Protein: Homoserine kinase
Amino acid sequence: MRTVRAPATSANLGSGFDVFGVALDRPADVIRVERAPRTTIDVTGVGSQYIPTDPEKNVVGAVADALDAPAHIEIDKGVRPSSGLGSSAASAAGAALALNALYERGHTRTELVPVAAEGEAVVSGEAHVDNVAPALLGGFTVAREDEVTPVETDISLVACLPEIAVSTRDARRVVPDRADMADVVHTVGSAATLTVGMCRSDPELVGKGMDERLVTPARSELITGYDAVRSAALEAGATGVTVSGAGPSLLAVCDPDERGRIAAAMLDAFEDAGVEARAYKTRVGGGADLF
Structure:
């Protein structure tokens, strides 16, 4: 048996749609794999009742098939499905790493990124790597076509998850298919600022670099209380706030000693909007751990 702790992730970060991602040090999934004649799946933990155990409909089944590694796979979910925190990516990345070790396939973590992305395609319809890349490699990642660049960084974050469900497919449908050139230029500038901020571990630059006018405004409409929660986080000291992945989680960048105050402010704002929520005081962390 091999066991992997696979972290939650946040993709896009505002200005890096389908390109940027970060691994979070919490929450996480735990995946256990054992050799078997055919793939079977058991799921426990948060939101497990909504996750199919049919290997053809579960991300880990696709990963096992891609690696030709049938196994009994146990998934203990710590990352809620439809949270915007890379729930499916955590399971897919964890399974890829665990099965690669179990069957001694010899793939590097970078080589496992497209394998795990095949699992993501089961959920979103497309093999995106912006969540599975940081889940496997850790840190801040930049994905461009078939190339992924990881960067180690030290950035503190608050991820606030409301009790709202936003599916990846629905969140992709609202993304505009055309953009004004001024908005494109603004987004490029923000993305460059965020990248420099990650390389310098500078929360001020990272926060400024989250600002964009294309994807986030469209997706924020799917999240009850978004504007109020964002404003509350900024007033409490966050340097930037955006939608985490497809949502509904919001991600705030901050100094480490301000996470408690910002988390409380975001929770209060959601409560005022009539929405229950929970907050994770977290930071950019490492990739999946293999045991």
In short: The chain has a mean pLDDT of 96. The chain has two domains: 2-151, 156-283. The domain at 156-283 is CATH 3.30.70.890 (Alpha-Beta Plaits). The chain has ten helices and eleven strands.
